[in-house]
TrEMBL record:
Residues 56-420 form the Citrate transporter-like domain. GO terms for cellular component: membrane. It comes from Acidihalobacter yilgarnensis. The keyword Signal applies. This is Sodium:proton antiporter. Belongs to the NhaD Na(+)/H(+) (TC 2.A.62) antiporter family. InterPro entries: Cit_transptr-like_dom, NhaD-like.
Length: 482
C-alpha cells in the first residue's frame, strides 16, 4: 500500500466518490443477482460516503502521518455498518443488511486465511536464508551493470508469480543496492525495471497479486486461463525495459565475495511451498472448494516440518558447549506466523467492509452505469488500470468483481491485466514501488520514476493491444449474452 504526496490527495478524494463495491447478498428468498436499494441520497448514505472518503485520505497519507493504514478503515467500517442497517430499517427492511455483512465476512475470511498461509511460508523462507542465498549468488558473479539490469528484471518477472510482488522487488533491489549503491543513475533504472517486471509477472498468476487472487477465487478466471496473459505481461515488461536499457551506464562493479549458506530445512520448505500451491489449485479446480483450504493444509504441513527443524536444532544445541549465556534461538513456526503483515490483513478487513457497506447503500449501481454501461467494457477496464496507479488496486478490483458487469472472458482477463500492471505507471502505484522508495531512499523517488513513466505507459498500451489481438476470440460475449 502506498502513500500519496499532498498534491495528489484531491485526485484520490475525487476517485473515492466512484469507488464503492458490493457484498454479494440477496434478499431472503429472492433468486438471481443481489439487488440493493438506492439509498445514496439519504442522510445515511451521505454520512457513510463521507466517512469512507475521510478514512481513505488518512490511508494515503500514511507515511506523512505515521498512522497505520488499517486503523482508519477499521473504524470507518464500523461506522458505515451502523449506517447501512439504520438506512434499511427506516424503509422497513432488516434482513438484507444481515445477509450482506455475512457475505462480506465470508469473502474476507477466505482471503485472509489464504494470505496468512502464504505470508508464513514467505517468512519461513526468509528465516531459512532462501532469499539471502539467491542474493549472495548474484552479487558474487561480477556481472556488468547491463547484465544485472536484465537479470534482476527477469528474476523479478518469474519470481513474483509465486512470491508476492513486494517481496520479489525488495529481494532484487537488495542485489542492485549491494553491487551499485554508488551509481544512482543505474539504481533508478534498475528499480523502475524491477517494479514493472514484478507487477507484470504477478498479472499472469493467481498467486502473483491480491487482485489476481480475488479474480481466481471468484471463478472469473481459472488457474490455466491466467496463462493467456503471459505474452501481454511479457510485453508490458520488455517494452520499457528495452527502452531504459539504452540508458544503463556502462561498467562492471567490483565482484563481492559474499557467501551465504542455506539454513537446514530451507530446501524442504521450498518443496512444501510448491506442494501447498498445488494443493490450493487442486481444491479450487477439481473439488470446487475455496483454495484457502489447500493453503491451510499446506500450513499444517509446514508446522509439522517446523517441529522437526526445532527438535533437530535443540539436539544440536544440547551437544554444544555453553555459549556465554546466549544460546541462539531455535526455529519456531509460530514466530513466522506472528511476522505476517497483520496491518495489511486488517486493512483488507476494513476495505472489504467499507466498500461492501457503500455498495449496500446503492453506490455500486451508479459506478457500474457510468463506467461499463456508459463507456463500454474495454475503455472502462483500461481506466481501471490507470486509476490503480493513483489508488490501491485492491479496492478497485474488488469493486469491479462485485459489480460483476456483463463482460466476456477476454474482458475479465483484460481488467485482470490492467489492474495488475497499471500501478507501474507511478512509483506510488504499487506496493513494490513504495517498498523500493524506502529501500533506495533518496535515489529512487517519485520524480525519478515519473521521468520514465512515458516508457512504462508505452508498455501498458502495448500489453493491452497484444491482449486484444492475441485473445481476440475471447473478447466477445457469446450470442444471447454472458
Amino acid at each position: 500500500m502506498k502513500s500519496l504526496p499532498a498534491f495528489r490527495l484531491f485526485l484520490v478524494a475525487l476517485f473515492a466518490l466512484l469507488l464503492p463495491t458490493v457484498a454479494q447478498a440477496a434478499e431472503a428468498g429472492a433468486g438471481g443477482p443481489p439487488v440493493f436499494w438506492n439509498l445514496t441520497g439519504s442522510w445515511y448514505g451521505m454520512v457513510a460516503l463521507l466517512v469512507f472518503v475521510l478514512a481513505y485520505l488518512l490511508v494515503v497519507a500514511e507515511e506523512a502521518l505515521h498512522l497505520r493504514k488499517s486503523k482508519p478503515v477499521m473504524i470507518a467500517a464500523a461506522v458505515i455498518w451502523v449506517m447501512v442497517p439504520l438506512a434499511y430499517a427506516a424503509h422497513g427492511n432488516t434482513t438484507l443488511p444481515q445477509v450482506a455483512i455475512r457475505e462480506n465476512l465470508l469473502e474476507y475470511v477466505e482471503l485472509m486465511l489464504f494470505l496468512l498461509a502464504a505470508m508464513t511460508y514467505i517468512n519461513t523462507m526468509q528465516e531459512r536464508g532462501v532469499f539471502d542465498v539467491l542474493r549472495g549468488w548474484l552479487v558474487s558473479r561480477g556481472f556488468s551493470l547491463r547484465t544485472i539490469f536484465w537479470i534482476t528484471g527477469l528474476l523479478a518477472f518469474f519470481i513474483s508469480p509465486v512470491a508476492d510482488n513486494l517481496t520479489t522487488a525488495l529481494l532484487m533491489a537488495a542485489v542492485v543496492m549491494a553491487v551499485a549503491r554508488d551509481n544512482p543513475r543505474f539504481v533508478v533504472l534498475a528499480c523502475i525495471n524491477i517494479v514493472v517486471a514484478a507487477n507484470a509477472g504477478g498479472a499472469f498468476s493467481p498467486f502473483g497479486d491480491i487482485t489476481t487472487l480475488m479474480v481466481w477465487q471468484r471463478h472469473m478466471v481459472t488457474f490455466t486461463q491466467f496463462f493467456d496473459l503471459f505474452l501481454p505481461a511479457v510485453v508490458n515488461w520488455l517494452v520499457p525495459a528495452a527502452i531504459m536499457s539504452f540508458a544503463v551506464p556502462h561498467g562492471r562493479p567490483r565482484p563481492m565475495n559474499e557467501r551465504v549458506v542455506l539454513r537446514p530445512g530451507g530446501a524442504m520448505v521450498i518443496v512444501l511451498f510448491f506442494i501447498t500451491i498445488a494443493s490450493a489449485v487442486a481444491f479450487h479446480q477439481f473439488l470446487h472448494m475455496p483454495p484457502m483450504l489447500g493453503m491451510m493444509a499446506g500450513l499444517g504441513l509446514l508446522k509439522l516440518y517446523g517441529y522437526r527443524i526445532k527438535m533437530r536444532e535443540r539436539r544440536a544445541l544440547a551437544g554444544m558447549e555453553g555459549l556465554g549465556g546466549q544460546e541462539p534461538p531455535v526455529f519456531d513456526v509460530f514466530a513466522q506466523l506472528q511476522r505476517a503483515e497483520w496491518d495489511t490483513l486488517m486493512f483488507f478487513y476494513g476495505v472489504i467492509l467499507c466498500v461492501g457497506g457503500l455498495a449496500a447503500l446503492g453506490y455500486l449501481a451508479l459506478v457500474s452505469e457510468a463506467l461499463y454501461s456508459g463507456l463500454g467494457a474495454t475503455p472502462a477496464n483500461v481506466i481501471v488500470g490507470l486509476l490503480s496507479a493513483l489508488v490501491d488496486n485492491i479496492p478497485v478490483m474488488y469493486a469491479v468483481l462485485t459489480m460483476q458487469p456483463d463482460m466476456s472472458h477476454g474482458q475479465w482477463l483484460l481488467v485482470t491485466l490492467t489492474a495488475g500492471v497499471g500501478g507501474s505507471l507511478l512509483s506510488i502505484g504499487s506496493a513494490a514501488g513504495v517498498g523500493l522508495m524506502g529501500q533506495a531512499r533518496g535515489i529512487y523517488t517519485f520524480s525519478s520514476h515519473l521521468r520514465w513513466t512515458w516508457a512504462v505507459a508505452l508498455g501498458y498500451a502495448a500489453s493491452i493491444l497484444v491482449h486484444l489481438w492475441l485473445n481476440a476470440d475471447l473478447m466477445h460475449l457469446p450470442a444471447g449474452g454472458g
